[in-house]
Amino acid sequence: MDDAAFCNMRIAVLLPCYNEAATIAAVVRGFRAALPQARIFVYDNNSTDGTALAAMLAGAEVRRERRQGKGHVVRRMFADIDADLYIMADGDGTYAPQDAEELVRTLLTERVDMVVGTRRGVHANAGRQGHAFGNRLFNLLYRRLFGTGFTDIFSGYRIFTRRFVKSFPAISAGFEIETEMSVHASRLNLPVAELELDYGRRPEGSVSKLSTFRDGFRILRMFAMLMKETRPFAFFGFVALCLLAAGFSFSVPVLIEYVETGLVPRMPTWMLSLMLVSLSSVSLTAGIILDSVARGRNELLRLNYLAQPDQLFSAQSVSPPSADHPVIVERPRSGSAAA
After folding, report:
1. Which of 167, 220, 238, 249 gives 20 to 30 Å between its CA and that of 269?
2. Closest Cα partner for 175 from 151, 211, 147?
3. Residue pLDDT, tens place only, 249-267
4. Per the database record, which ranges form the Glycosyltransferase 2-like domain (predicted)?
C-alpha cells in the first residue's frame, strides 16, 4: 500500500461509550499513536462517571447521543461523520488500538467493504461462562440461518468503507447492531473479510454492560426479525409447517374415530384442526408473496449501495497515462452525427 495515499485518507475512529471512564483515555491515546492522521470520535451515551471529560482530555472529539443503546449511537455516528474509512471499536480496552493499521491494510489489500476483527480467545476471556456459551450458540445459529461468511458476529472491532456506512439501514437499538451489520453484508453479498486479533480482558474497575439473558433474548428476537425480513419464505414456511403438523395431530384421533364409528363427536377438535391447516396455507402464501417483496427490497438496497461513490478503490484502480499508453480522446465528427 502506498504510504502517501494511506496518509491522505480520511480515517474516522468511532468509539461508542457508556461509563468507560476507567479505560477510554488509554484507548484514545492508543488510536492516536496507531493512526496519527485519524480523527477520533467518542460518542457518550449518557455516562455518569466522567467518560466524556476523560475522552476530551485525551484528545478525542466528544459528542453525545441521548437515546440509550449502542444501536442508536452507531446510527448517529454513521449519519453524522463523513470519511473514507471508518474504524469502530469499544471504549473498554478489550481491543488493541495498534491492530487498527493492520485492519486498514487488510481492507485495502482485499478490496472489501468491511473487515471484522475476530476475537482470538474470546471464549476463554468472555468473563462469564454464559457469555462464552451464548457466543458459540449464536454464531452457529447465524451460520445456519444467514450463511457462513462470518465466524464472530459479535465482534465490535470493525472497519468499513464509506459505501458500506452510508448504505447501511441501521434499525437496531442495542448490542445486536453488530448482528445487523453482518446480515446486511450477507443479504447483499458484499465483499467482506475477517482478521483474527487478540482479545483482552477488561481492566480493573471496568464493568461489562452485557446481561446474559436480557441481551440474549434481544439477539434472538433480532434473529427472528431479520429472518422474517430477509428470508420470509423460509420464516413463514417454517411457521406453516408447524401449523400443519399441529393441525394433523389434532385431526388424526378424530379421523380414526370417524372410520371406526362413522361419527364425529368431537366437532370442536375437528374444527380446530381445519383452522390450523387453513392458517398453514395462509402462512405459506404470505411467505411466497413476501419473498418477492424481499427480493425487490434487496435490489433497492443493492442499488443504493452501488450509488455511493467508490472513491477509495477507484482512485487505486485508475493509473495515470504514460508515454507508452497515451490517452486518446475521440472528438465528434462534423456533420449529422455531431448535430
Report:
1. 238
2. 211
3. 999 999 999 898 888 888 9
4. 13-165
Please write down the long-range contacts of 60-64, taking CB distance under 8 Å and 24 or more positions apart.
60/15, 60/24, 60/28
SS (H, E, C) 65-101: CCCCCHHHHHHHHHHHCCCCEEEECCCCCCCCHHHHH
Radius of gyration of the chain (CA): 26
Pair 254, 264: CB distance under 8 Å: yes
Read off the pLDDT of residues 85-94 as tens digits, 9 standing for 90 and up. 999 999 988 8
For the domain made up of 3-228, the CATH class stated in words is alpha beta
Cell readout for 208 is 461489562
Q: How many whole angstroms separate alpha carbon 88 and alpha carbon 155? A: 10
Question: Are 183 and 226 spatial neighbours (Cβ–Cβ below 8 Å)?
Answer: yes
Mean pLDDT of 77-102: 94
Of 83, 125, 90, 91, the residue nearest 107 (C-alpha): 83
CA separation for the pair 151, 135 (Å, rounded): 10
SS3 call for 42: strand
